[in-house]
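Hi F.,

I've been meaning to write this up properly since the lab meeting, where we talked about keeping a consistent format for the predictions we share between groups. The idea is simple: the sequence comes first, exactly as it goes in, then the structure tokens exactly as they come out, then a line or two of notes. No screenshots and no reformatting. I'm using this chain as the first example so we have something concrete to point to.
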Amino acid sequence: MTQAATSLKVTPLNATHRASGAKMVDFGGWDMPVNYGSQIEEHHAVRRDAGMFDVSHMCVVDLKGDNVRAFLRGLVANNVDKLQVPGKALYSCMLKPEGTVIDDLIIYFFSENWFRLVVNAGTAEKDIVWMQKRNEETAAGLTITQRRSGEGAYALIAVQGPNARAKAWEVLPETKEASAEMKPFNVVIVPGTAFGEVMVARTGYTGEDGFEIGVAAERAADLWNALAAAGVKPAGLGARDTLRLEAGMNLYGQDMDETVNPLDAGLAWTIDLVSERDFVGKQALLEQGQKAQFLGLILREKGGILRAHQKVICAQGEGEITSGTFSPSMQEAIALARLPMGVVVGDTVHVVIRDKQLAATVVKLPFVRNGKVLAA
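Output, unedited:
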């Protein structure tokens, strides 16, 4: 490990990445692989076959106790009462009282006294502090346990692509019966595999099918190497970003954060404002409403690349790009943008790139899903 990397946090797969010749970068204080050679090849492997990502910097948090469901009813903006069958999962945001986003996360329901959260890497510490504070304020009496480090630590490997599940079953045949009929946004825990107990969730961050697999940290390298031997291509942060952006998926810290109303970040579908249930931030959202739209852009003129924070000039006023990239699947510059109300799909807007105003078309998200280009 280089001296510069010694102060960075590392996942259980760090030595494996380095042994594979990965290019490592500082990602929010974590020493993470950006690619293993060709970022473009890694991107296409996920769209066309199967690739895998080390997402162990994300943090598994177990919430246990008699009042978990009631606690989550007040903690998150989506309605956990949708989770009635063990093994179901739910995407949601956790909000400040002002209605802005503390974090976006996935909730897994295992039993009435055990829900599992997976939260973002850079927000994990503040998330847990916030949950502990709410736990005390509401006298919920829960046990809140992070599983990213220490005893019982979990590693997370995302296996994504049209052939991802089949290749995962080659390595983890014991999981096939339990997960073969499992629909997206479901999870199962399978004991007794060659790598010990594993959590298999049919979730992901690429717009492709696949699994996010949780395994004991000490078995992570063995599982990673077995998946690679089965033809699953290791992929780094670079491909993960182009894939998620093509899929129209928000990145915390870019597309939303503690200054952004989730209604303005295209996340209205995750916010339950209809039921009588109260939650932190609900009143603020009702008072503020939606003031901007979250849409896609495709650059139509040569001369630039779309990047975060570029100004977007619309007939209705100014907007801003939140994430941008060059799409390997589309061979075009694309972006996620927060645009004024009144802008509609098909409109031509102009992005300010250096001293130029370049035309772009407003499109509905996602750009790409399940290997197919949807936006043109």
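Notes:
The first helix runs from residue 14 to 19.
The CA atoms of residues 165 and 180 lie 8 Å apart.

If this format works for you, I'll send the rest the same way.

G.
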